[in-house]
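INPUT
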Amino acid sequence: MDAAILAEGLGKTYRVKVRDPGLGGAMRALVHPRYRDVRAVDDVTFRIAPGEIVAFLGPNGAGKTTTLKMLAGLLHPTSGRAAVAGYDPWVGGAAFKRRIALVLGNKQQLLWDLPPVETFQLNQAIYAIPDADYRARLEELVSLLALEELLDKPVRQLSLGERMKCELAASLLHRPEILFLDEPTLGLDVTAQEAIRAFLRSYRDRHGATVLLTSHYMADVAALASRVLIINHGRLLYDGALELLVARIARTKRLELIVGDGVRREDLAPFGEVRTFSFPNATLEIPREEVPAASARLLAAVPIIDLSIEDPPLEEVIRRAFEEETPAAPSLAGGGTPR
Amino acid sequence: MTAVAGEERTPLRIWLHRYAALIRAAWLVDLQYRVAIGIWLVWGIMEPLISLGIWWSIAGHGSVQGWARDDFARYFFGVTLVNQLTLAWDAWYIDRWIREGEMNFRLARPLAPVHEAIADNLAYKARTGIIILAAWLLVAAAWPAVRIPFAPGRWALAAVAIALAAGIRFFSGFATGLLAFWTTRVSALMELQFGLSLFLSGRIAPLSLLPPVVGAMAAWLWFPYMLAFPVAVLTGEAMTTGAIVRGFAGQVVWLALWWLAYRVVWRRGIARYGAVGG
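OUTPUT
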């Protein structure tokens, strides 16, 4: 099957001016400007199939937004090539841009002083959407995102979550095949985050759109993405299923316990590392392969009221994945789903 | 996926629809800022009126190098209208688009950002032009000095000259604004252009009253074609056919050069764009 998004050896190097601190540094920079090359994205290769939702993860400055912007045709890469919806993003022009949507969590296209419906009408004209299609799509988006009450309120009076919902609607009226979403739930409360996630899932299911999103919220990743790309310092560290990453990185599991009367912290210590103890709750961390045996011994030796076995929090797994960068990078990259 | 929308419509209709929607949105936004826009308009009218007041008192009951009070009145009324119809403020917000990341979503749309700026200009000029024209007609009813000769042919030429002047001013501002791809000092460059244009375009005095060296310098630049020439055509200033032809030729050449500058700066700028600010 043809890829919806293909990146091959994609790289972006910025040339930045280097300046020593202070007035002297500023004067020297004026006379003898010095430059340094910064590799924001370095030899990144991946392929995303139509209809996939893939999360792009990495710490701030890792290169994920730069990659997204290259794939959306905003930035010209220094090296490598890309194909998105069958187009070269930098020469695809208007035909390419009609097939994609780029939603930036912190910079919005909505006309600030006017109700969102005005931006929708403007986008209808810009994307040349026929009237009947526009009405049908708007109706669908209004119902999926519950926008009815917001359409005629000026954007500046909407909450952050309401604005993001309208932003998504404005970006999807032309029914793009490919969605690039940069932090779509940034700063939203839990209810609004969940509404956006539910909408994205349902949009993908209805229209088969391919989604590449960045997010700092692991709940987004766990709820939406079947596959993750992890990038740090511009290099791709992992490409594969989320569960495989967890299994690979998280060498331990957590036993969440409710213990019976009289159980002390010391009673639990022989079975694993006691991470927290606040009677009657306790958390034990145990190497993954020892979990069945250790749990059985624990249940036999200590009064336990309730026990559940969980993976460590996803945030921690991802943080560890970022840290395993240098020597482990080749072994991490390439795992998971077939490419 | 469904077929790409809009394929069944002619490109002309698509473009007309786009411009109509952009102009409509610009007017709707303007309505939110009507007081601010009223103040800008008053300021735009004040500047030539102050110049008129100064030259009015200098001329007294005689004339300055052949310019009598009535000539100054006609000239500066012309300057007011032409200035408002050619005003271009784009460099300031393009600078912001680029520095603050507002260019990003514009680059992701199938419409070059220049069209949004052109539509914004058309919206402003249609609205302001009508207000100033109506005010001029009212004043002219009471004050014969500012009436311009009835000459529809000359008015048609003036309309073309004003359109070309607006084009030169727009593309020079837009191209300068795009320098924000390279430098953070775009507003300083625009202030410099603005300062020069005060003298070299004929805003504070008719060019023939400036020292000959300034006039000679102006003749080699685009400034007179942005204001002095269309004002002369509009107010019916005596001009030879040769001078009119040379004026239009100069306008066309400068428009072509600034359009070319815009294209070059745009292509190169976009290739080195860093897409800052999210």
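end of record. The first helix of chain A runs from residue 22 to 31.
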